[in-house]
Design brief:
It is a single chain. This protein has 455 residues and is of the alpha/beta class. It has 14 helices and 18 strands. The protein has two domains: 315 residues, TIM Barrel; 124 residues, 2-Layer Sandwich (Alpha-Beta Plaits), CATH 3.30.70.20. The strands form five sheets. An eight-stranded parallel β-barrel has the order 3-4-7-8-9-10-13-14, surrounded by eight helices. The longest helix has 16 residues. The protein is elongated, with a radius of gyration of 26 Å. Bound molecules: flavin mononucleotide and iron/sulfur cluster (2 copies). One iron/sulfur cluster (SF4) binds next to α11 and α12.
Amino acid sequence: MTDISINFAGIKSPNPFWLASAPPTNSGYQIMKAFDAGWGGAVWKTLGMPTINVSSRYGSVNYRNIRMAGFNNIELISDRPLEDNLREIEEVKKYYPNHAVIASLMVDSREEWEAIIKEVQDAGADGIELNFGCPHGMCERGMGSAVGQEPEVLKTIVGWVMDAAKIPVITKLSPNISHITDPGLASVQGGTDAISLINTIKSIVGIDLDTYAPYPVVDGKGTNGGYCGPAVKPIAMHMLKELAQHPEIKSTPISGIGGIETWRDVVEFILLGATSVQVCTAVMHYGFGIVREMEAGLRQFMTDKGYQTIYDFAGKALPNVTEWRHLNLKYDVKAHINKEKCVGCDLCYIACDDGAHQAIKINDNDRNRIPEIIEENCVGCNLCSLVCPVEDCITMVRKDDGSQHVTWDELTLADKIPNTFNDDRAGGKGHFVPTPDDALKAKRKDRSGQNQFDF
Ligand SMILES: Cc1cc2nc3c(=O)[nH]c(=O)nc-3n(C[C@H](O)[C@H](O)[C@H](O)COP(=O)(O)O)c2cc1C
Ligand code: SF4
Ligand code: SF4
């Protein structure tokens, strides 16, 4: 039997699935319901100082037929009375002593930090998460991302918190910064026990075409919101990897957040070094029940691969994420079309001809319009296989024999990089590109009814 329990910087949890600090963790009612559904931990909706929220407050990017592919909000921290939240933390911990309850906090002065840390500790929270990420409203008051974007200020505040806290401290980072390792390192230097990321990304999700106001609209006006949901997962994973590979940060436990919805997302975050994951948008969209699929899928993956614990595979993808200059320039793949599967939709042809390397031709005499790869033109970019709507119809087939391995770094060291575009060692030299003359001829041919694409 696999063991999916975790000890995250001293915070014990029956599994790595935590609710992120957000509306699903607004109250003890919701958190207890989530624990019953299978969540192992919850980061309470950020507690701090009195606020007033606006309506409306959420916006989304509906991509084609997918609703909430991206989600954004202009909500502030908890607007519920602090004493109600503290009482509910105490009650939840009484009923669920083995689940992780983490208090997310955001205040301003050192005295306020010391006071609220004592209050959540007294209420029985298992840990504290510092919200240095909120990119709207609170940052205008000098908190949230205003701290997350200033590594020196962040370090100072983490230091205050570490002096006051008796329970583990997680520093939650803002992605609204050029180099995530700057605040990451500052939090480690400030003494944090762990890091979580990402909070939301500054964004405008759309404009009302009648009122010209950005969504979500508040009486004819709007403001930038924080972007999250499936659309941000690639950004979150990159930032996670940046921290997990950094020599001075990598030994600090990281809780991964951003676009997590399925067991596969969970496994990918763990492979990149996270040892707990947090979810907000997917729960706001589908409810607490999604954790059942996450747990079943995670356990199945671990069984299939022979892993006993989360720590057996945490970070396993990191050695394979390298810099471009270390990639093998001799590795050579070309597209291959499975004619049995092809439905003749032309999408690959259009993508390659207009958007890539003119390496696919359509034989007009073929009634099924099955395209053909022109191997000598194919640079193996993947585009056709990505646009093809039929699973495994276009595959990328390795053409080199694996005997050669050369990287840009090695070429540079050996003084063998191309010096001019005419240099035989230059990458694009010899790649087929139709001349403008040929294009014109092809166009003329088309008017006379012949194959437009026969270069
Ligand atoms: C409506 C809403 C409110 C949020 N409120 C908070 C908050 O109070 N504190 C906090 O640290 N993060 C807050 N977040 C950010 C989430 O905790 C999380 O970092 C972010 O949404 C990315 O995860 P996701 O893609 O799973 O949603 C909020 C997010 C949303 C959508
Ligand atoms: S891999 Fe790229 S270049 Fe090759 S056929 Fe597909 S789209 Fe064209
Ligand atoms: S995109 Fe796929 S299905 Fe469509 S023509 Fe190309 S190979 Fe066939």
